[in-house]
Each structure stands twice: as C-alpha cells, then as structure tokens.
Amino acid sequence: MNYLWCSKPIMKSFLCFIGVVFCFNQALANSTPDQSSTVGLIYHHVATDTPPSTSVSPETFREHMAYIKKHFTVLPLQEAINKIKKGIALPPQSLVITFDDGYRNILENAHPILKEYGFSYTIFINPDRIGVEPAQLTWEEVRQMEREGVLFANHTIGHLHLLDKQPKETDSAWLDRVWRHVEQAQETLEQQVSYAPKYLAYPFGEYNALLAEKVLNEGYVGFAQHSGGISALSDFAALPRFPSAGIYANMRSLETKMKSLAMPVVASTPIDPELSERHNVTLSFTINSQDVRLSQVQCFYRGKPIDSRIDALTVSARVPDTLPEGRSRVNCTAPSNLHKGRFYWYSQPFFVAREDGTYPD
C-alpha cells in the first residue's frame, strides 16, 4: 500500500478517509460474486437445416464466440466445477460452453470456430446413437475431437425421457430402470474415450428429486436445461445452463445472460421439480447476500412478469396459470449492487407428466 504524507491535519484526515473508502471498495472487489460464479451455455445444432428451436447458424455461432472472446474467459468445464466446489476464485466474467446430443454439425461447423478462438468445450453424448444415426458423430470422430481437447460426457445411453413411467411401475423400479441408462452410457464412454468424468446431462433437462438424489449419491454432477449462473450454492445435481440457440440466440439478450450472477439461494420450494399438482404453484426461495437488490426482483413465467412478494430475504412468486404438461419454468432476476448492469438469476423448472405417465418432446 502507498501512503500519502499531508502537512495539514484537515487535508491529512480527508485523504485518510478517502484511503479507507478506497481500501474498503478494494476489499469488496477482491471478494466479488463475479469471482465465485460462472455461467454455462448449452447448444445442440450449429447448422441451418436442423430444427430451428435447437439450432444456431454458423454465422450466429461465430458472432457469439467473437463476443465471448472479447469479454469473457472460457473455462474447461471440469476446471470451473472443481474450483467452485473448492472455493477457488474464478476469473471475472467466466463461462463454460457445452453441447448436448453429439451431432456431426458440431464437428463440421462449431469445432473449427472453437479451435480458432482456443475455447475448451464439452459435448454430452448418447453412446447408443454414436456411429449409428447418420446425423451423429462416429466414435472415430469422437476420439479425434478428444485428442484436440474436447471433453465428452454422459447424456444417458439413448436419450429417452427419464421421467417416463411405465404402467404400475413403482418409484424404486423406475429409478433402477433409468439408472441403468446412465450406467450403460458411462461404461461405454469409459471404454471409448481416454477420460469420462462423472457428469450427466439430463435428456430434455428433465429430472426429479429421486433422480437428483441418486446422481449425487453416485458421485455425479448433474446438468439441466433451466437458466442461471453456477456457484457453490447451486444444486450440483442439476446445474443450470442458458439455452443459446433458436429464440435464445439473439446476441442482445444473450449478452445479459452471459453476464448474470448465480442467485445465492440457500433454501427453496418446491423441492421436487416434478409436480402432480398443476394448479396454484408457488415458487419460494431464500438468499443470503446483501448484494442482491431484492427491492427490484422480477419473476417471469413464459416470458411475462408475474407477481412476487418479498419477506426479508425470501422471495415468493405464484404461477398465474395451470402448468402445462411437459416442461415449464419460472425465472427470477434482481440487480447486483456491486456490479452495475449485471443481474442475479434464478430459475426453477417444473415437469408435469401426461395422464399416461409419459412426457412430450
């Protein structure tokens, strides 16, 4: 620290006050939420002839990567997860890049751009589809990409809806059945690539409390498809990732999401995202940070604001409509006091089965 000498007592006191303020602000900056939080992006297709809802054109993908190169630090997924778990500071404005499903257009259209920018990334694949379906990578291509730094991880063996229930199937029988899809995929990955971490991305982002508990008990980290930042307070059975394709590929809105901070949630309800009751659903969560400007919290359902209530450090928001069958979610954001123009972000997914116990695509 540099000290200033002042001959006049008043000036000296003033400068000392400024020094205290400066040091206080520096202390805040040295322990910012920005360094304990990262953001995950999820892509599927990088092409123009694939389903629009899960696709981004190569030109738009390059635009995303160019922006990221200028403003962010891209971390390997494993490095980000390990540092967050150990409480090691991350670079300011960091993020991780992931893909689901293992399509060949990732190799053809995304991989060259990612190599050009020097970005690490992860692909979650379904081993039963690799080298079988024409649009999928082959195992030879997978191994070549791995040699070039790509991490491959578990997306279950065949991309089924894990929450689908068979007639009269008990919870225990269901969990045993779907877990075999996870184990078979992991075993195949470990045979085909040199390293396969115990990371699991849920097909369609669907999971429930029983499956999440199993994921953690078996030593996995789970990845879902709802949005938000990732921090030590996140649920490591279902880490969020921001969808970055289709209607979510717009750079203007994606920029805000890339800069988001993980909402420091210490408790929330409902505990189980799979719901049997579709009416009068209320999300409630409690935070533990004074940096979240809760007076300006906003919650959204299907892109529209919904009423929220604040009680001390707890936010409650009621879904105004009956939840549809399939997937839906509530997103809540609040500005950061310390990081101007950046928002804390929390997302709660909801999953509702059809009457026959299955889920729509």
Summarize this structure as a short list of keywords or feature phrases.
single chain; 361 residues; alpha/beta; Immunoglobulin-like; 2 domains; seven-stranded mixed sheet; five-stranded mixed sheet; 24% strand; disordered N terminus
Using DSSP, what is the number of strands? 20
Helix content: 25-40%
Shape: globular
CATH homologous group name of the largest domain: Glycoside hydrolase/deacetylase
* Number of distinct helices: 8
Strand portion: 15-25%
The third-level CATH topology of the largest domain is TIM Barrel
Specify Rg, calculated over alpha carbons. Answer: 22 Å
CATH architecture of the largest domain: Alpha-Beta Barrel
Task: Identify the quaternary structure here.
Answer: single chain
User: Uncertain spans, ≥5 residues at pLDDT below 50?
Assistant: 1-31
Major sheet: 7 strands, mixed
Assign the structural class, choosing from mainly alpha, mainly beta, alpha/beta, alpha+beta, or little secondary structure.
Answer: alpha/beta
**CATH first level of the largest domain:** Alpha Beta
Q: What is the overall pLDDT average?
A: 92
Distance between the termini: 59 Å
Total domains, how many?
2
What is the chain-wise order of helices and strands?
Answer: HEEEHEHEHEHEHEHEEEHEEEEEEEEE
Subcellular location: Secreted
InterPro entries: Glyco_hydro/deAcase_b/a-brl, NODB_dom, Polysacch_Deacetylase
GO biological process, one term: carbohydrate metabolic process
Signal peptide: 1-29
